Known about the structure:
alpha/beta; Rossmann fold; 7-stranded mixed sheet; 12 helices; 5-stranded mixed sheet
Amino acid sequence: MVVESRLNTRYALAAALLSVVAHLLLLAFADRVRLGGLAPPRLRMPARRMVVSLVDIRDRVFKTPPEKTTEELRQELARQAGDFADDSTPVRDLLKDQNLLPTPETQIQLKGLGRNLVLPDLDATLPPAPATAPRPQIIEIDADRLPALAATRPLVPKVPRVPYDGDRLPGFADGGELRPGSPGTLGVGLRLSMPGTTPDLGKLPPEVAPRPDSRPEPAVALPRLPGLEDDEGFSSLDDLLNVTMTVYQPANEDGYFRIDISPNERSRRLRTISKDVLFLIDCSTSIQPAKLEAFREATVRALDLLNSEDRFNVVSFRTSPDSLFEGYERVTPAAVARGREYVGKLMRGGLTDVYAGLAPYVGGRPADRSRPLLVYILTDGNSTVRNKLDNDVLLRRIAEINRSDVTVYSASTGKGINRFLLDLLAYCSRGAPLYRSDPDGFDLQLAQFVGAHRDVIVAGIDYGVSGGLASQIYPRRLPHLYRHSTLSIHGRFPRNTREIGLRLAGTSAEGENQDFVFRGDIGKAARGGDELRTDWIAQKVFHLLVQRTLHPDPAIDRELADLRDRHNLEIPYFR
């Protein structure tokens, strides 16, 4: 019995071992065994392209800054208030309670011609004030009495001086000792001129006329740049704008450039253009309570940032618009107070039709074509009516009816935002989108956004470039030129290009045509890096996305796919 039990145990162990070996063999050759019709067909998954994108091209196109905290936004608003013109009293009142205003500077009381010219005959009724500095005088030190080390300091040399009251300096050609000339009176005439006009300076007397051999050479006329009207009838902006050109030339391929144009201190002679401003607020049920509260607070702050010469209106919409005023009302304390009251009473309710809310104000004929119209639409961009328009159709219809070049700025906060609609709506209308993930602080960020677009100094900007580069520059349409903003133009140029010419034109507050001409030497331009290529690609992609929406074409899809594959991009709104 004991022997038989041992044999059974051995047989059981051998069987178990054989079973393990058989299962291992089956596992090893399972993928090679086919059971005819019972075997399911093997599916071959298409190779997927791995995309690692650390940059959102929308941020490169719209120059989106990192989202700031509430305290950082308050500090930015304080600095922005210091840059505003003298009529920024509402801004200062807005920030007074936060103790963020800079110390006021000493003001000079002028008489007659205004603050641009200090007259010698100031009002004698001003009270006397103690001197704040010693009277200027020449301090002379004899170098012979100074130590050797002190003698190297910049000092006024002790030289003979002769009192002189004449109207012309004596000549040095004959040499000899300086002698005072005959006394006389020097008359000075002043004549003020407005921007764009040339004062009549009269003629010089014969005795001070320039020598025949010292006449300047005649100026060389710039060639006319294609794509714009003739130069006749334009006043120059050349002295009022700062311009820089940065280039990047990779090896064995075309180069990239960026031209930045911004107003300088002399541009203050250009008056701010009076404008119309519309605040369009979505009050439908799809707007969460916290988001609507953020919209209300943001609009109230923004009302305090309008210029005294502006006009404004506030409109709420659901399936149709509801307007505060019949038209655009002049900015006055009473009108702004009515706006605050209207906004404070807004309540959620009803469905949303974004097109029905926006179209009447973009497609209607403006009351005054000389006043730019800026629309700030605060919405999540989601229409909820049954017969709502698709995003593409809505954008095409807005582009078709916007014949007056109304500028649209879209703004929203929180989650559930239709960014495709709001991004392209702003881009097609020479505007920009604004987003903030946290509703807290949205009011401050919108106030900063509105303040940055407060002072239009040149409207209806158009531009052209030389050298056949027009098809390689973006954006194709520029916004208005604002006093505290920078216009950036991105382009690409062939390797043999030596110079890039640019002409920019627009309209001033007086209705005059203004233009600016720039010629940049690529060899002398500042050098940039690969970010110039990235910015150019982002600008081109967004331009193609807009063209794909407005004018669908399979060729545009192929071009976008080629850019995506060649540069390993993640393109939003495109699959």
